[in-house]
Amino acid sequence: MVLMAMNPALLNANLPEYETNPNTTEVAAPEHNATPEKVYVMSPQEEQQTRQPLSSHVEPENIVYQRRFKAEGKNWTMYYYNVLKERLPDYVMNIVLIPDDYKKITNSSKHELSIPPTVKKLIYHKTGDSREFEGAWINEIIKDSDGQFYKIEREIKLPDDIANEINSLLSDETQFRPNPNLVKSFTIKSTLDLEPTKKY
To answer: Mean pLDDT over all residues of the chain?
Structure first.
């Protein structure tokens, strides 16, 4: 088994969906029978802020954690990102994967169209041998050769150590607290083929 931090619950089912109150969002809650801890409830304005599209280049003051890695023959940086870091310093709202050659994209009016590659789901390629790996399904905005802007969704193959870090985060085995909707689903495939890229 290559990926050692895999949570069995993640392997067997999609991650659960969580309902949110339109007026407030509880971002932390004590475990059952555990010592009560402070619960922070976002104001409607703060909750709206968390739903805004991310800038193409993450703001340093909102970075909770970062780590360099290599994928697709180039260097990337993984960011745990939180626009409310000042109040929730250990909370992770998004996982963003940005390659070194990532460029800001603007339209003719100089309005920024970019969103950084953000992890939406995880795909585990379970083949029963040493070739097994985990991929991240990311979305981003690109400018094609025809000059048009498109949203694409695609899978990238993650290095084992980066996949294990993300799995540990989702399993609540780190010092960080993951957003319950951080990753929408977890899929298992029996092949090594990456998911086909989708273009909108």
So the answer is: 76
